[in-house]
Amino acid sequence: DNVFLNFEDSAIDEIAKIAFAKNESGEDIGARRLHAVFEEVLEDISFHAGGDNMPRVELNITADYVKQHLESAKELVDIRKYIL
Predict the structure, then answer these.
(1) DSSP class of 16
(2) Cβ–Cβ contacts within 10 Å for residue 33, how many?
(3) Residue 16 — pLDDT band, cuts 50, 70, 90?
(4) What does the alpha-carbon distance between residue 27 and residue 33 come to, in Å, rounded to a whole number?
């Protein structure tokens, strides 16, 4: 789809921290959680990716980008631990 992603080290660290926290506060599914977190981070990019006719786009994924796109998911995890 002509979309090229560059993950900064800080973004990878943030994704790992969030995946670990979600495993701690919910069902521990191990490394499979990373896949789920990556899907959440990349959801908007995947949805808006144009196709072969679109120009080449390069995106830098930063820790701030990860935090912004996972903010609502973080709140849901915090709420779950209070539900009986």
Answers:
(1) H
(2) 20
(3) very high
(4) 10
Q: Which two tokens stand for residue 2?
A: 């002509």
- With cut-offs at 50, 70 and 90, classify the pLDDT of residue 64: very high
Angle of helix 9-25 versus helix 63-80 axis, rounded to 10? 0
Return the CATH number at 17. 1.10.8.60
Query: Which has the minimum average pLDDT: 9-18, 61-70, 72-81?
Result: 72-81
Domain span including residue 36: 3-80
Number of domains in the chain: 1
Structure tokens at 80: 């779950």
- End-to-end Cα separation, the chain, in angstroms: 44
30: helix, strand or coil = coil
Q: Residue 78 — pLDDT band, cuts 50, 70, 90?
A: low
